[in-house]
UniProtKB/TrEMBL annotation:
CDD domains associated with the record: RsmI
Enzyme type, top EC level: transferase
Keywords assigned by UniProt, alphabetized: Cytoplasm, Methyltransferase, rRNA processing, S-adenosyl-L-methionine, Transferase
Lineage: superkingdom: Bacteria
Protein family: Belongs to the methyltransferase superfamily. RsmI family.
E.C. number: 2.1.1.198
Gene encoding the protein: rsmI
Organism of provenance: Macrococcus lamae
Protein name: Ribosomal RNA small subunit methyltransferase I
A Pfam family per the record: TP_methylase
Alphabetized GO MF terms: rRNA (cytosine-2'-O-)-methyltransferase activity
Catalytic activity reported: cytidine(1402) in 16S rRNA + S-adenosyl-L-methionine = 2'-O-methylcytidine(1402) in 16S rRNA + S-adenosyl-L-homocysteine + H(+)
Amino acid sequence: MSTLYLVGTPIGNLEDMTFRAVRIMQEVDIIACEDTRVTGKLTHHYNIKTPLKSYHEHNKDRMTEVLVAMLKEGKSIALVSDAGLPLISDPGYELVNAVRDVGLTVITVPGPNAALTALMTSGLSSYSFLFNGFLPRKESEKYAKLNELMQQPHSILLYESPYRIKDTLMTIAKVDAERKVALARELTKRYEQVVTAPVNDLLTRLENDIPLKGEFVIVIDGQYEVKNVEQWWDALTINDHVNHYIAEGQSSKDAIKQVSVDRNMKKRDVYNSFHIQD
């Protein structure tokens, strides 16, 4: 019977491939993957001869129809990502829904996951956690999202590139400079590194003790008790607060929006304070 298999693959060390995953990838008719070059290294290592087809963010709409048609013809397909579990911060749920809509079978073949691997080794609480994948790139939106997440009594799991890790740690420090954070890089590989410390300490160790190489997982300790955290802008008036963001290059509209988020105020009230003079 034709089946869509969701197959977990190694996040670094190729020896983390399961016997079942190898067998399924050998038995299916097609392996749908993000990058055929990346998955090709894995299939070559395990002598898997199954043809590869690209399935990624930019072609998922067209390829979902193609793959569903193949399944309806009686073929079976394995969906994999470049590393770890498919669908986790990667496209694929649309394909799962489309396959189920036509009455065909979806089976999961579990495997490694970078976020959970980092949480396991971080030393931070693992009883409850929130996974948020990648943060917004725009600074004001990133700050707003982190400010929201870091008020929660759960560990926060994030992905970040080596090119943005420093900026993201600086934004975390704006929310709470003393919050304990774990940085995990090169997980399961030869130079695996997991460092847990207050975020300000991590910032001083970047580039020297912590090379900016490899994809990062960030684990942020939850806020488990209510506390009054002193904010950098507490001594500023609302107008000075807005002008601070304008001086950084934001438009007055964006600066007012950010101040409303910082101070948990209505945007209209910040606008009126800034624009209406006595």
